Amino acid sequence: MLAIFSITLPIFVLIGTGVIAGRFLSLERKDLRGLSHFVWYFALPALILRAFVLHPISDFLHLDYLLLYLTASLLTFGMTLSVARFTRGKSLTESALMALGSASGNSGFVGFPVASLVVGPLAPIGLALNMIVENLVILPTGMVLAEDGQRGGAGALKALRGSLMSLVRNPLIISLVIGAAISASGIDFKSMALFHAIDMLANASGAVALFIVGATLVSTKAGGSLLPDATQVSVGKLVLHPLSVLAVSFLMPGLDPEMRKMAIVYAASPMLTVYPIIGQRFGYQEMSSAALLMATTASFFTISIMLALV
């Protein structure tokens, strides 16, 4: 058990540091915007670029991992959507947002720091593959369905076009393309001076991201009436998503055990820190904020339990 806490304790100490800073330094979301932009536009892209520089492109051609994470994420999305829509009678928009929260993990801000301590050099490879699943499939699907619930088919088409345009501008997708090109070219990029700058940016990603998660929680509020919805999203994210990965992995007997472990670790992370911002766009900021607060707080225990199991 001490080995488990040696992995999780540094993660949540950094989150706790963010909470303390947010509380006593009165940091607000607008104050954190600059840090978030630094991680999103510079540190995480540098992390992905570094992974491609240090690994041959063949290391990223893990179609079995990609299939595992994609199938499990879609399974989680579908089950959460069905329960919310047909069992609990939620609107299509709210059901889609709840499914989005359950099926899209915070791979960059929480999943990667944990995975790097568990599977080491495999973690950036998993991050790159997760970005493909989350940015190309899960997020666009959730946004399109949420828009469809509010405005009908025309709204869905507009959301789809917006999602496709955002992919073109997504810094993580851009870094994936550039990194793949560098890796495929065979250029010894790591001997160049520019690589050291990329390396420094990449090293900053984990600590700063976790600090932002903690500071964000201070300004996140949850009302009692939102408890059932927040609970469903949180259980879907912290329990159903990793269990779906585990279940699907049993259907893939040739899968590398380390890949299976890494997929479970990433799936066990809470949802994106921008989840309340997505919810605000559709009028469900309170529900998404409550879910983020509950899932991030509970993840201290659920991640520890998950690590003990894997």
From TrEMBL:
<keyword id="KW-1133">Transmembrane helix</keyword>
<protein>
    <submittedName>
        <fullName>Permease</fullName>
    </submittedName>
</protein>
<feature type="transmembrane region" description="Helical">
    <location>
        <begin position="238"/>
        <end position="255"/>
    </location>
</feature>
<keyword id="KW-0812">Transmembrane</keyword>
<feature type="transmembrane region" description="Helical">
    <location>
        <begin position="63"/>
        <end position="84"/>
    </location>
</feature>
<dbReference type="Pfam" id="PF03547">
    <property type="entry name" value="Mem_trans"/>
</dbReference>
<feature type="transmembrane region" description="Helical">
    <location>
        <begin position="261"/>
        <end position="278"/>
    </location>
</feature>
<feature type="transmembrane region" description="Helical">
    <location>
        <begin position="167"/>
        <end position="187"/>
    </location>
</feature>
<keyword id="KW-1003">Cell membrane</keyword>
<feature type="transmembrane region" description="Helical">
    <location>
        <begin position="6"/>
        <end position="26"/>
    </location>
</feature>
<keyword id="KW-0472">Membrane</keyword>
<feature type="transmembrane region" description="Helical">
    <location>
        <begin position="193"/>
        <end position="218"/>
    </location>
</feature>
<keyword id="KW-0813">Transport</keyword>
<feature type="transmembrane region" description="Helical">
    <location>
        <begin position="96"/>
        <end position="119"/>
    </location>
</feature>
<feature type="transmembrane region" description="Helical">
    <location>
        <begin position="125"/>
        <end position="146"/>
    </location>
</feature>
<feature type="transmembrane region" description="Helical">
    <location>
        <begin position="290"/>
        <end position="309"/>
    </location>
</feature>
<feature type="transmembrane region" description="Helical">
    <location>
        <begin position="38"/>
        <end position="57"/>
    </location>
</feature>
<dbReference type="InterPro" id="IPR004776">
    <property type="entry name" value="Mem_transp_PIN-like"/>
</dbReference>
